[in-house]
Amino acid sequence: MSDVTAAIISKLTALEARLAALEQRETTPLSGIEAGLTMTGPLAFGAGSAASPALHVVSDTNTGIWQSAADNLDFSTGGTNRVKISSTGLGVTGSITGSTAIGARVYNSGDIELVATATWQALTFNSERFDTGSIHSTSSNTDRLTCVTPGVYLITGHAQFAANATGARALGILINGGAAIAYQRGDNAGASVTTLVSITTIYQLSAGDYVQLSAWQASGGSLNVVAAWNHSPEFGMVRIA
Fold first, then answer.
1. Please, which residues bridge with residue 154 across strands?
2. 11, 163, 194, 236 - which has most CB atoms within 10 Å?
3. What pLDDT, in 10s, does the model give residues 157-192?
4. CB 102 within 8 A of CB 238
5. Long-range contacts, 66-70 (Cβ 8 Å, 24+)
6. Angle 144-145-150 (CA atoms, 0-180°, nearest 5)?
7. Which runs of E-coded beta strand occur in 52-98?
8. 3 Cβ contact partners less than 8 Å away, ≥ 6 residues apart
9. Which pLDDT score is estimated for 25?
10. Among 21-30, 93-102, 199-208, which stretch is predicted with the lowest mean pLDDT?
11. Is 224 within 8 Å of 138 (Cβ atoms)?
12. Residues 75, 83: contact at Cβ < 8 Å?
């Protein structure tokens, strides 16, 4: 066999080996042939379908990413399309679940006497409707709702003042025992009608911050905040962002 023939056979053998390697790349996951592969350009693949998404885990072929139409990006699980991102927005098929909201609502089961006229007094709360974030204690500092998880909170308070025809009534939400972050004031409803006051605010709290619901009345003497149904006295907050 001539040298020329031997050279041709050698090149053909090398070409055959390279073709076999390319064929192997077509059928073998990238992670299986080259750990730590770095892409320096775009990675293109077919559109796929919900039942067989183009990008999926080897052992779970009906869950992954695919494209239902131009300018869409779809995500399927178990062969069913669950999320579609398009040029017009986001679409979700099925329910969206999340963690339990962080918040508390507390109340006092008995009347609270406001002992001095024209004097602010923090209300105390001996019972809880719910508390999902260790926000309140029924044994110590019962007048406080304390922020454990930082965020923006919706804070509300409700109180029913005993009937009295003299002076105004008010509620305030105080932060850290000092500055008020909300006030609500109303006139008395007369000698035979109780006066209802509600207050709401939104405020950003840091871990350790606490808020109090403070009541004020100008009846000229002591006056009760009345325990009534599920609306007085009540105090709550829930994290919204």
1. 202, 238
2. 236
3. 999 999 999 999 999 999 999 999 999 999 999 999
4. yes
5. none
6. 140
7. 55-57, 60-66, 73-77, 80-86, 89-92
8. none
9. 57
10. 21-30
11. no
12. yes
Task: Note if the pTM is more than 0.90.
Answer: no
pLDDT for the residue numbered 91: 82
Structure confidence by residue, pLDDT tens digits, 65-104: 989 999 889 999 999 988 889 888 888 887 666 667 899 9
Say how far apart CA 101 and CA 3 lie, in whole Å.
81
User: Which residue matches tokens 């077919």?
Assistant: 46
Give the closest residue to 51 by CA, choosing from 79, 12, 11, 93: 79
Q: What is the mean pLDDT of the chain?
A: 89
Biggest CA–CA distance in the chain, Å, is 123
* pLDDT tens sequence across 116-163: 999 999 999 999 999 999 999 999 999 999 999 999 999 999 999 999
Q: Which residues contact 30 (CB under 8 A, 6 or more apart)?
A: 37
Buried b / exposed e across 159-192, counting CB within 10 Å, b at 16+?
Answer: bbbbbbeebbbbbbbbbeeeeeebebeeebeeee
Q: Tell me 28's DSSP state.
A: S
Helix (H, G, I), strand (E, B) or coil at 166: coil
From the number of C-beta atoms within 10 Å of its C-beta (0-12, 13-18, 19+), residue 66 rates as buried
Contact 148, 135 (CB under 8 A): yes
**CA–CA gap between residue 219 and residue 241 (Å, rounded):** 40
Within the chain, where are the H helices? 3-27, 30-33
